[in-house]
Amino acid sequence: MSIRLDENNYGKQRLRLLRLSRRDGWHHIKELTLGIRFEGDFESAHSKGDNRKILPTDTMKNTVYALARQHPIKTAESFCLHLADHFLARNPQTSRVRIDAVETLWTRLPIGDKSHAYTFTGASAERRIASVDATRNEKIIHAGIEGLVVLKATQSAFEGFLRDEYTTLKEARNRILATVISARWLYRDAEPQSDAIWNEVRQTMLETFADHDSQSLQHTLYAMGEAVLHKFGRIREIRLSLPNKHYNLVDLSTFKLDNPDAVFLPTDEPHGLIEATLRKD
Amino acid sequence: MSIRLDENNYGKQRLRLLRLSRRDGWHHIKELTLGIRFEGDFESAHSKGDNRKILPTDTMKNTVYALARQHPIKTAESFCLHLADHFLARNPQTSRVRIDAVETLWTRLPIGDKSHAYTFTGASAERRIASVDATRNEKIIHAGIEGLVVLKATQSAFEGFLRDEYTTLKEARNRILATVISARWLYRDAEPQSDAIWNEVRQTMLETFADHDSQSLQHTLYAMGEAVLHKFGRIREIRLSLPNKHYNLVDLSTFKLDNPDAVFLPTDEPHGLIEATLRKD
Amino acid sequence: MSIRLDENNYGKQRLRLLRLSRRDGWHHIKELTLGIRFEGDFESAHSKGDNRKILPTDTMKNTVYALARQHPIKTAESFCLHLADHFLARNPQTSRVRIDAVETLWTRLPIGDKSHAYTFTGASAERRIASVDATRNEKIIHAGIEGLVVLKATQSAFEGFLRDEYTTLKEARNRILATVISARWLYRDAEPQSDAIWNEVRQTMLETFADHDSQSLQHTLYAMGEAVLHKFGRIREIRLSLPNKHYNLVDLSTFKLDNPDAVFLPTDEPHGLIEATLRKD
Amino acid sequence: MSIRLDENNYGKQRLRLLRLSRRDGWHHIKELTLGIRFEGDFESAHSKGDNRKILPTDTMKNTVYALARQHPIKTAESFCLHLADHFLARNPQTSRVRIDAVETLWTRLPIGDKSHAYTFTGASAERRIASVDATRNEKIIHAGIEGLVVLKATQSAFEGFLRDEYTTLKEARNRILATVISARWLYRDAEPQSDAIWNEVRQTMLETFADHDSQSLQHTLYAMGEAVLHKFGRIREIRLSLPNKHYNLVDLSTFKLDNPDAVFLPTDEPHGLIEATLRKD
What we know:
Chain A is 24% helix and 46% strand.
């Protein structure tokens, strides 16, 4: 019996960074949490304990800070690309470098009609994500969003579903529909895209969620993905992962009370989960 | 040796609730997580296992949903008061009832200049809090806020501090100051206050944080509390608890790079913590 | 109107530390997360931004590591005392120092009948806690435990409780009782106690939980506290905080199935919460 | 441009369950958190809102409880298989069913030399995992472990690594090595295996970690995987994912103190991450 080292990677995770720049009294901040993964010729490190091809993960960390100093960070994607290029160029022992970025979103403090020059509030649990998966032949850039919580109080049904002996769910013509949007899309070209596009993709998903006459969360997921693919020529594929965050109508009949869509119990577990990828042919 | 039952309480925690109401095609939602605590004559339950004075926590739960059905929830405070009154009136065995509410904040989805009639996004990790501490003689209402993340990129110093043999910190004329505001204030009168006041208190704290020429986080905390007490006659006391979320300037000199307030390392641990109560005499 | 600075404190939280010592090829580790709070004469720092009495929290951090190097850490309590004494002696501006420690528990890896000399597994989510609250006149030492999950599958009832119009709970003769023990006790003398006592207190609580003929969680809480106070002369007070982690019997009657204590639904929310202090007179 | 629905699945997550059985006064409990995913012919649900092929996730939930009542749960794997078989047999619209189980581990309370008949403590943050990935042609069973925290205080080096201009890490002959074992292995035959095997795999990994003369975490990972594949003929593949939980030696030279492996700073971020699959040829 022989044993073979199959897929393997190593790197540094949860590398945190805030990049500050000041222009004309106006302060700009970008906060990222990065993950770095190397794939390559690391067989001897595993089987023999030979570290000659292992760039320490501590060096990856130092590199992130040094490069962040030398270059402005226009977008999470552009910085990921920059890091991937740097590591591939210097490390012939690697065949693939993957950089993942999670951006903590900050909003300028509004004061009256204006925005503050240097004070920011933490916008939300929502995160912007970017990833670059690079070999010497190909670069794939994903952009995305995580943790965007959304709820609609009407225009959502779930009827006509399959039933078996364990089905007790009642048909719903008008239920609350709530989810946490997790989306990841792929640009046709390996170029970092503008912040404006990211914001438009986000708004397209939200407006579709809001205005869709939903027959199920699958139905709404598809509508959201379709709207993005139709509107943005540069996006060739989108994957959505949507938990169905149930708000259950509380049964108050024991207390001789009706409950016409008034009192709901929010629950985290169990929850549904709907996932799909939509792709242009 | 005799053993005595001292301070004790019991109740239900993490009671979740969404209240929906519709007016003229406009949907309103309020989402709360409640905690209930009873104090009273429960000695025999503890020492003898006699449950005759124990209203089950399951009944507390049912009561929350039944009352939420019968009454609109104008504010978290008003619903807490309502529950406290209900429980005190029906349960002579209790001497004190405490209700805590944490409100999950939802924002109407903006579409162009308008707000959507029934679709909401989860505003942030920020939570509005309310609590009512009620006996048959007195009611104390606290309002507050938790999880409001805020950062200023300049106008914050920390100099002239006490030094001993273990002090290595350098004086800072211009550092990043970041915190997560946790505040709790006390109204003079045991009346639930309007949403407008809560929003104004919040904005007063944020603007003070932004515009204060900070010599330390203690200094800024005090300015924030003072501004609230000066502006709002109805508030007689405020407590602030502010972690000092350090953003440390990365030392890049090893790589022959300067770092003029460009690249920072955000850290969660360790962190400073500053807490104080300000009170009107 | 004048504004007064009332109760206030500052310090450093989430200071992490692992202390390693080697004796005769046998390695010992102690891992602590510390919190430090100073109270004292800090009015001018708040109201005037005068930092001359402020020892930086960064210095507190350095002090922890320097003292940990110079002294072995016998127990969490002894190290907390050491720190409190150090800070009070050097800082006349402080009136009170509070040190909290949370100990991450490690267990030697068992190999056959033996324990490994230098390899440990993370024992559990359970934490040992210690705190010292010290002024120049008095020191109070608490020891305790958090996160100790325990469940009994029988010998737990809840019957004969108070009912009102919102009561639907059925009487239970034989239910699952589960909780997460959080306990904190006070020694008569301000001396750090041995690890042996801490282990015996823990075991006393667990055995009482197991063998008690429970009429309610209040009833069991009281029995646990009473057993500790009876057995340990040095302990004068104990506070227990016990969530009632409900395991609800699933109703399968719709599917023509009975459920004689076979299938339960574990839930985290809502949950009961029972808290009490027992004290020797 | 046409849009195509690509990979998609739906199901229920975080389904919690405790199964109790009593034999001869001896109580047995098994606590699982389940996830269910269906793949199949769901195009019309997405693109047309036609739910006729959608078995509600609520029905999946009911099925879990009904089947748990009708059958004992010998192991997490056997219950996953049972569920997968049930769903595939009744649902011709599905092509693939995946069941994931996470087992909360409970330990009988030790009292002296004995174990308690019906009282258990929550063993640790460690979880046993099982998954079944089933089509009508093939079943793949994975077993595994998550959250097993382990630390060795010596016999770990990291030397001779690749250096570049951003490398500052010092060579270490004797460092603390700590990780959280996440492992997942594949049995040759699609049969649920005994608890004994799972325990032996776990112990094999732990003893290898302890006794290995580690040149890097990659080196130790490989040794752990190799030991498992050598010892267990039935296992054909194992994947390990090991974060490098850094314990950094604190530099106390500023305070004129040496630090000969005495005081370490535990950190969660950033951390290394090493992942690899080992496979029998």
